[in-house]
Amino acid sequence: MATTLPKVPVVIVGLGWTGGVIAAELTKAGHKVVALERGKARKTEDYYMVHDELRYARRYGLMQDLSKETVTFRNTEKLTALPMRSYGSFLLGEGLGGAGIHWNGQYFRFLPYDFQIYSKTVERYGAKKIPEGMTIQDWGITYDELEPYFDKFEKMAGISGEPEQNPMVGKRSNPFPTPAMKKTPSFTMFEEATKKLGYHPYMMPSGNLSTQYTNPDGIARAACQYCAFCERFGCEYGAKADPVVTVIPVAQQTGNLEIRTESNVTKILNDGKKATGVVYVNTITGEEFEQPADVVILTSYVFNNVRLLLNSKLGKPYDPKSGTGVVGRNYAYQVNGASSVGFYDDQEFNLYAGAGALGMEIDDFNGDNFDHGSLNFIHGAGIRISQAGNRPIDNNSTPKGTPAWGKDFKQASIKYANRVLSVSGQGSNMPWRHHYLDLDPTYKDVYGMPLLRITYDFEDQDRELVKFIASKADEIMKEMKPSKQQTNAELKNYNIIPYQSTHNTGGVVMGSDPSTSVVNTYLQMWDADNVFVIGASAFAHNSGYNPTATVGALSYRAAEGILKYLKTPGSLV
Prior knowledge:
Blueprint: E1 3-4, E2 8-13, H1 17-28, E3 33-36, H2 53-58, E4 71-74, E5 82-83, H3 99-102, H4 112-115, H5 117-125, H6 143-157, H7 185-196, E6 202-203, E7 213-214, E8 220-221, H8 247-253, E9 257-260, E10 263-270, E11 275-282, E12 288-298, H9 302-311, E13 329-332, E14 339-343, E15 359-362, E16 381-386, H10 407-415, E17 420-427, E18 436-444, E19 450-455, H11 460-479, E20 484-488, E21 505-507, E22 531-533, H12 548-567
Parallel strand pairs: 1-12, 2-3, 2-12, 3-9, 4-19, 12-22
Antiparallel strand pairs: 4-5, 6-15, 7-8, 10-11, 11-12, 13-21, 14-17, 14-20, 15-16, 16-17, 18-19
Helix pairs in contact: 1-8, 1-12, 6-12
């Protein structure tokens, strides 16, 4: 029997980047907020001198316990989905700060094309360019409308970037608040090669601070030390922007935020038209609580946002057979696999040093920055070189033909430890009618709730994209003059292993039409106006970029909408 608690004005489910931004904005405006986080409390001190690759990179110390909650996966409806029991394709963060703790810091605004992808594609190429079954749609908002919110997130996080405007991306109202990170010798090689080929290289915008910075809320943070422990790790310096060192302290300082950790929300209480609160379980004691609230805000990860709506029977579930319904629709992932690797016999680099967002990129083949008229795909990929830092366990690159063990393997591993560079593409992913998220009919979590099921595979569109981007990566690497070069241009069927990207998107997509979207442009549910669902679950497709910038911008816009709602309840559009 659940214990019913006193009603609160606002309850937030999940306290990562999105929850942190919402909590900060609402509490600064004087509103009382309760934030429920299913993981444990975290602070910067937890990571002091803890460069433990085994604990965090290999044993996933910051990630969700898959023995208690996981997802199931299948490529097609003809297959039986099975649970993901060990980490592979993507990583599900848990604890205060969420995935914002273990992200790399790579920060890219989505392109203007992304937000109007359907209309822009039809305008340039005609409707026949979009293959049957591809369900791309405009997002209901333009880049120009979202630009001020990108700017606000960047000032809060202290994003580092080049002062000059990159001509391949959307226009900016202000320069980045801090300078770009250090340009390494390998980046200079990439820059010279790409410029020679007529492209437009630029330093990767970074959530790893290039210099000391104090943000508009008065939060001061130190500069990155290039220690190479970013992805899958918390930052011991506070140099990597994360919710625990930026927005959450601001909300706490107001006295209006109550954080309850170890509190796993299992259901949204509702009457089909309004939410009345949430049910959550204390993960330590097993006690169940009902938390009534005037406004319910879902700010957890993509899969959990979708699963909570479906398990709570809130919103219309997507039906792939009829193409109707919206919750679970337009799931998309990321298309990687296009790369060219160079081995240098006579040149050594300091590859052991680095940062998660230390890199250089070209966007000449991203979005619609190039002519797709004769190509069998739309959108594209950013092509990049990065230096995240080669940690000892996970990095052992050797040329093809090297034995997998023994003396020759050891010698090659030592020789090339700091002599391998990679130029790779991170590609967009389009939604399809037969790619979706729903509840698994067989498997349940530790609380007896159905797990979320993923039905997804790579398409010919993705394979054509990989071939094209690989040819460009190969071209660039040749100009960088390695001793040996090997290029990957093949994309096989999607599998839940090995690790590929944590950039899952969709399932609660935004838009201007309730028949094809769950939320409006303020991320307010069409079917329950006191419920807001915030995160990459709102993306109608996935771009060739990392999602955090766009998630951050949408969070600030949603916060603005929630403040309007709290003043005058009702639909915001």
